[in-house]
Amino acid sequence: MALDELKSALPDYAKDLKLNLGSVIGNSPLPQQQLWGTVLACALASRSPIVLRELAPQARENLSPEAYTAAKAAAAVMQMNNVFYRTRHLLSDPEYGTLRAGLRMNVIGNPGVEKVDFELWSFAVSAINGCGQCLDSHEQVVRKAGLDREAVQEAFKIAAVIQAVGATLDAEQVLQD
Q: Which domains are present in the chain?
């Protein structure tokens, strides 16, 4: 029902988003845990209260408690990593790349779910945050773990649609106030 609420909340000019939202969630070839972990991590990364409020309960219904927590952890750690590594990459001084990061990222080594799932969720959050270095790193890990390009693309399609839905609904809320 939450998915229908989001679709019905979208304005008429965003009909394509309605169709894509139903498609990327309702017709996804990803296994349930990968799908709903990606949805939850992307809802968190979108920073849209509307999207998060509607999709988090449905994600909770479709994920084990461990997977629900791991998807939230992926979103949290990647928010930090994406800013750090994107900035380091964008700086023209390559010496920053030789310095120790010094950031705690223990959850990546022990996420509480299959590593490939956590890495896919981290990849999707990195797509929203636009960190090329993190995208490359997580894409390589999931591909080595056996995911094909179609599964990887499915994750960034979900990220793109959820981000667009959140931005549109948040903007509409401001315009209506």
A: 2-94+103-176 (1.20.1290.10)
Phi-psi region of 28 (alpha: psi -120 to 50; beta: other; left: phi over 0): beta
Q: Which of 131, 151, 155, 162 is flagged as catalytic?
A: 131
Per-residue pLDDT band at 177 (split at 50, 70, 90): low
pLDDT digits (tens, 9 = 90+) for 60-84: 999 999 999 999 999 999 999 999 9
Is there a catalytic annotation at residue 42? no
Q: From the candidates 67, 70, 134, 142, which is the catalytic residue?
A: 134
pTM: 0.94
69-101 burial, b at 16+ Cβ within 10 Å, e below that, comes to: ebbbbbbebbbebbebbbebeeeeeeeeeeeee
